[in-house]
Amino acid sequence: MSDLTGVISVVRHRRIATSWLSAVSWLLLLLFLLVALVGPVLLGTDPMRQSNRPLLPIGSSGHLLGTDDLGRDELARLVHGSRPLLLVAVLATALATVLGLLIGLVAGYFGGLVNQVVMRIVDLMLAFPSILLIILLVAGAGAGTTTLVVGIGISLAPGLARLARALAAREAARDYVLASRLGGSRGPRIMLREILPNIAGPMMAQVVMTLSIAAGFAAGLSYLGLGQPVSTADWGNMVQAGQEFVLTTPSLTLLPAVATLIFVVACNFAGDDLRDALDPRGLT
CA-to-CA distance for 210 and 243, rounded, in angstroms? Predict the structure, then answer.
């Protein structure tokens, strides 16, 4: 097979969300996406607007989830806070996927010395703690969305590259690749038109799980003051700001922390479900 028909066939016969846990995970991811896209518009409340009603409890009149220490509506901040986290996580995962596929396809297809050199560089990057790499980039370039996306994307690319390399090396030994070479196709065309569609399934599953790691990094760095500016409604910032009042108003910390945890766990279960549905062994 030289296109995506194999993957489509698997999805048709091995459906996703076959268990209640995976179904709930996919529904939660859809809910997070809808909240980030249309939630702020529907809510219509400024998350940065201060009032003279600080630290209101959950269920207060006019403030469903209460207010923070500056009187800002907690529901508005929670809804708006989903946007920067999802934006950074999605863009960083996309960057990591592009880099990982590029590196893995080249190493897996050509093999030999190219594979040895490229994968030793990848191993070196994997040996360096990801969080330290991101912190160094943030310290050098300054905090912000762009820096977070680049730092997290680069740090997550080696893991995807290793998977892409293993899958590409397996496919490069298949008869259809040999036939394509004999037909006059060159390396780039074979990698993009022949090999890439046939490794798309397991790569897609890994990308979904990588999204959870990127989200965890984004929230954690904001909590440490190395992510989004403190003036931004962001779940990591909200956890950091609310910990001062964890004994009196625990919801300020628990709500954004639980929201982040649910998103991360849902990504992992959805990725597992997608991996089972797109298992290349199901093509045989």
Answer: 28
pLDDT (tens digit per residue) in 229-259 = 887 889 999 999 999 999 999 999 999 999 9
Kindly compute the dihedral angle of the four CA atoms of residues 188, 190, 192, 198, in this order, to the nearest 10 degrees.
-150
For helices 145-172 and 112-127, the axis angle rounded to 10 degrees is 140
Note the pTM of the prediction, 2 decimals.
0.88
User: How buried is residue 234: exposed, middle or buried, by Cβ count under 10 Å (0-12/13-18/19+)?
Assistant: buried
Copy the structure tokens of residue 96.
Answer: 């990591």
DSSP H or E run through 266: helix 251-277
Determine which helix (DSSP H) or strand (DSSP E) holds 81, and give its type and residue range. Answer: helix 74-110
- The single residue listed with the structure tokens 């403030």 is 63
Q: Which range has highest mean pLDDT (51-65, 89-103, 130-144)?
A: 89-103
Contact call for residues 14 and 64 (beta carbons, < 8 A): no
CATH class of domain segment(s) 5-44+82-283: mainly alpha
3-state SS record for 192-242:
HHHHHHHHHHHHHHHHHHHHHHHHHHHHHHHHCCCCCCCCCCCHHHHHHHH
Residue type, 253: T
Burial letters 51-89, b for 16+ CB under 10 A, else e = eeeebbeeeeeebebbbbeeebbbbbbbbbbbbbbbbbb
Residue that is written with structure tokens 């370039």 in the block:
141
Tell me what pLDDT residue 279 has. Answer: 59
CA–CA separation, 64 and 44 (whole Å): 14
